[in-house]
Amino acid sequence: MLYILLFLSGIGAGFVNVLAGGGSMLTLPILTLLGLDISVANGTNRIGILLQNIIATTNFKKNKAFSVKEGLLLSIPTTIGAIFGTFTVLNIDKHILEKIIGIIFFIMSVFILYKPKVWEEGKKVKKNYPLSFLIFLIIGFYGGFIQAGVGFFLITSLIFIEGNNIIKANALKVFIVLCYTSFSFLIFLLNGKIDILKGTILAFGTMIGAKLGTTTALKSSTKFVRLIVFVMIVISSIRYLL
Q1: Positive or negative torsion for Cα 175, 179, 181, 182
Q2: Would the CA dihedral through 151, 52, 15, 7 be positive or negative?
Q3: CA dihedral over 129, 134, 138, 143, signed as positive or negative
């Protein structure tokens, strides 16, 4: 029953990860229920993330939802940060960080309600490459560290720092996560922190969810996607703070 639940949680995670983020909130608890240590669960979760983003990126690219050049430029600092974050998480207690992230998510959810048009339409920004590099480096570190909720940070930065609307930000987010997860996955694998069987079952679910999520994202209004992001941020904030 737990393996079936893992597969179903993968479908749910793949769907919400493509539309917003926070899918790891569904999968990490199930992986630990299956007897995995949290560090192994964190690594095993990357199989699903990697494969769901291959599916989602392919579909977004087919529909010309983002620029590969922009995605690659932003992936460089994010991947560097993710490599350091992955090595760090192998030897650190995450509880204090989780509380801080919970508070940040709560503030972010209020901000979504306060500035809805910016999220839906994007904004004109003056590019600040050093600031962009630093912010995506930090986000990458967090993504390599724990992954859960990294999509929220990426979407926010892609809108307010890079000037994209929420649909394009979502597509870029998926591509960036795919790039850095490839490296994080390899580091976890080489350090014996991945359960291939459980990760594969999860991945089959996340790929189905990613396909459904991509189709929904491409056909939905920016207002609908913003609402999904808001709901997932609130849920993630509560999960981290409790």
Answers
A1: positive
A2: negative
A3: positive
d(CA 21, CA 223) in angstroms, rounded, equals 16
137 Cβ contact list (under 8 Å, min separation 6): 77, 78, 80, 81
* Structure token digits, residue 28: 């990490």
- Give the pLDDT confidence of 155-184 residue by residue, as tens digits: 889 988 998 888 899 899 999 999 999 999
**Residues 42-80 pLDDT 10s:** 889 999 999 999 999 999 999 998 999 999 999 999 999
Residue of 239, 242, 203, 180 whose CA lies nearest to 22: 239
Q: Please give the DSSP secondary-structure letter assigned to residue 162.
A: T
**What pTM does this model have?**
0.82
- Please give the C-alpha separations between residue 79 and each of 73, 115, 213, 215, 241, in angstroms, as whole numbers: 10, 29, 24, 27, 27
Task: Give the Cα-Cα-Cα angle 236, 174, 36 (nearest 5 degrees).
Answer: 55
